[in-house]
Design goal:
The protein is α/β, with parallel strands linked by helices and 249 residues long. Helices cover 40% and strands 14% of the residues.
Amino acid sequence: MVKGKKVVVVFPAYNAEKTLEKTYQEIPMDLVDELVLVDDCSSDKTVEIATSLGIHHVLKHENNKGYGGNQKTCYKMALSLGADIIIMVHPDYQYTPTLLPSIIWLIANEVYPVVLGSRILGRGALKGGMPKYKYIANRFLTLFQNTLIGEKLSEYHTGYRAFSADVLNSINFEANSDDFIFDNQMLSQIFYAGFEIAEITCPTKYFKEASSINFKRSTKYGLGVIATSIKHRLQLWGMINDIIYKKMK
């Protein structure tokens, strides 16, 4: 535990057999109490490798539930284990777990309830190989979101995220999409609920084995981001009452 708080790292996994061990080896186990891996019906040996590594809790979806659906299972399992701090780490080694101590202490010290690893702060994105079209789309969408939501994040699209249990218990994340837009809906819910979000500079790596959505799915995600931002603004104005903004506590 860190300052009496139980720390649980969750791995939303899909065909991660080539990168899982490398990711696991960088987890600071002196700070992390439990590891949870949810395999979203992979066709490779992700589950076997996770078990051989001694990951505490391994669950395999019998059917592919999507990226958002995978996270829902991850967070519910972490909360059921009594987690106080929950960190999502992608097992594709795109984000380094060596940043975990800094992330954990920010939440443990109650400085911020949510921490994101930002690829845009500094020069990590392009230096790490982010395709230029994704970088440009990231910057445009982030500007659009900040304008409509009224916040000042450097990016809304990182997959490196940490939450206090209070945050996850306060938002209706199970009402979100099972697709990639889940990430964006969560940040909208968190801001709407009144929580603050911290960002730290995060280097990133783009390589063959790292998961990445194609242009078609990226376009679908981008349209979803715009729709979520508009919905957030309408919710703030009291013009709609969407279920995703339902307070859970």
